[in-house]
Design goal:
The chain is mainly α. The chain is built from 6 helices and no strands. It is 77% helix and 0% strand. The longest helix is centred in the middle third of the chain and has 27 residues, at 43-69. Keywords: Membrane, Transmembrane, Transmembrane helix. The chain crosses the membrane at residues 12-37, 49-66, 73-90, 96-113.
Amino acid sequence: MEIGEFFMNKSSFFSLTTLWYAAFAAALSFVVPIIFIELDITDIQRMGIILFGINVLYALASGLLVGFKSQPLVYLIFFPLLFLIGVHFFFASFAYYFAAIYAIFAFLACGMVRR
């Protein structure tokens, strides 16, 4: 893999595709936990559903999408980074480790389908 495949030039970085990946990552990192808090779901249920369900599925789906479309791998970094910020507000400190798990899942899913 060339270094250019991981990093991209400025014009393609500020594209609509980049905005979509960032928007979905922000929604899953901030909006979904807020919705679960407002629904008054217990902390255990919230952590189980969000950390082990929704976020894992999104990491796998984004990895598969980036792999199928042969898009730059930097798109897979958005969600773990925004999740690290969201953990500070919505989850206990042990949840920081999930960012690495989500990144690993996304890169593995991408690698499975990459051409």
